[in-house]
Design brief:
By secondary structure, the protein is mainly β. The protein has 2 domains: about 100 residues, Immunoglobulin-like (Sandwich), CATH 2.60.40.10; about 30 residues, no CATH class. The chain starts with 14 loop residues before the first strand and ends in a 9-residue tail after the last strand.
Length: about 160
């Protein structure tokens, strides 16, 4: 009887990978305080995977939320993820975990983005009322100033 070595290889199990793709024309995801930004989440099938993983976002800093255009991804599917920051979100570079889970297989994508502070804008107006018709001088002047954006504290001089 002749003996020969036999090597057994286990077939690769079907699985999936989540891939982050930037929307055309963007190189980074900057999310302004009080605003939002979008990117694509793409499902890549590996070894014949045919499932439909549900999506979720975890490990978000305070003031940040992530929503999806569809909460599940089909094979070779694409969904749009929208990252929103409220005005209390700290300006910081951070990573959100985008999770896909189909009941058996779990994959986490680390999506990196930067919360930015909108630029400070200021406006002012000067209004005169009760002008003296004889001397052509103002009897009452009102100055109004307004700001938006920027990061507190503000100093007015």
């Amino acid at each position: 009887m002749r003996r020969a070595p036999v090597t057994l290889q286990q077939a690769a199990q079907p699985s999936f990978t989540l891939i982050e793709e930037r929307i055309a024309g963007t190189t980074a995801t900057d999310v302004p305080q009080g605003g939002s930004a979008q990117f694509y989440v793409v499902l890549q099938s590996n070894n014949g995977y045919t499932g439909t993983p549900a999506l979720s976002a975890t490990d978000l800093p305070p003031g940040i939320s992530v929503t999806f255009s569809n909460n599940a991804l089909e094979t070779y599917g694409v969904v749009t993820a929208t990252v929103s920051a409220n005005y209390q979100a700290a300006p910081v570079l951070t990573t959100a975990n985008i999770n896909g889970f189909d009941g058996t297989t779990w994959y986490t994508l680390g999506a990196q983005f930067t919360v930015t502070t909108p630029p400070l804008t200021a406006s002012a107006s000067l209004m005169f009322s009760h002008a003296n018709s004889t001397t052509h001088t103002a009897q009452l002047a009102t100055i109004r100033a307004a700001t938006s954006g920027g990061a507190a504290p503000f100093t007015y001089t």
